[in-house]
Amino acid sequence: MGTNLVAIKAFDDRAVRESIAVVRRVNVADLTRPTPCSAWDLGELLAHMTAQHRGFAAAARGDGGDPTHWKAEAPGPEAAGKYLAAAEGALAAFAEVGTEEQEFALPEFGPGAVFPAIRAIGFHFLDYVVHAWDVARTLDLPIAFDPGILDAALPIALAVPDGAFRTQPGAAFAPSLPEPADADALTRILMHLGRPLS
Questions:
Q1: Cα 198 to chain center, whole Å?
Q2: First and final CA of the chain: distance in angstroms?
Q3: How far is CA 161 from CA 95, 137, 172, in A?
Q4: DSSP E strands: which ranges in 107-152?
Q5: Which of 72, 89, 116, 123 is deepest in the core (most CB within 10 A)?
Q6: Residue 41, strand partner residues
Q7: Cβ neighbours for 189, distance < 8 A, ≥ 6 positions apart
Q8: What is the pTM of this model?
Q9: Range 5-31 average pLDDT
Q10: In whole angstroms, what is the distance from residue 143 CA to residue 147 CA?
Q11: Contact assessment for residue 55 and residue 123, using Cβ atoms and an 8 Å cutoff
Q12: What is the mean pLDDT of residues 101-125?
């Protein structure tokens, strides 16, 4: 990914904190709004994001192979508050990761899937650039990432394979979309990961 563990943890922290800032704007009435993730309304998206934080935090502690950590709860009126707590928990867990090669079990990639910390935290970082944008878009709010965050996230995004498997139920991303010729880094990330801008 062209960076080291300290840098990727710092980028991840900044992306997650952008998501925290926008989730703090969520009201209970917003939870039924449709999102750029077509299968989920905002409450369901927040439940997914919360479960991902909990799963990655467990992986950082050496317990990511337990699928119960990755199970999303049914969304309710406290969805935003649960998200905020889980986000802080993931950041605290990542702060304790000391080596690039520490193993993270990530069962969502398949049975027995294990990745070194630098790659696993990179996956998490990309997710929260995209999910922060998802929530902001859902709420019709602007979001402006530091260019350094986007420059770090872009090669991770472009490394995500495209193909027919992205049309399968439960796929992490929709098929990629054509990029405008003058696309900036955020647009390139979103287009490659199948997020429509309109």
A1: 20
A2: 30
A3: 29, 25, 11
A4: 114-116
A5: 123
A6: 34
A7: 126, 129, 130, 150, 153, 154, 157
A8: 0.93
A9: 98
A10: 12
A11: no
A12: 95
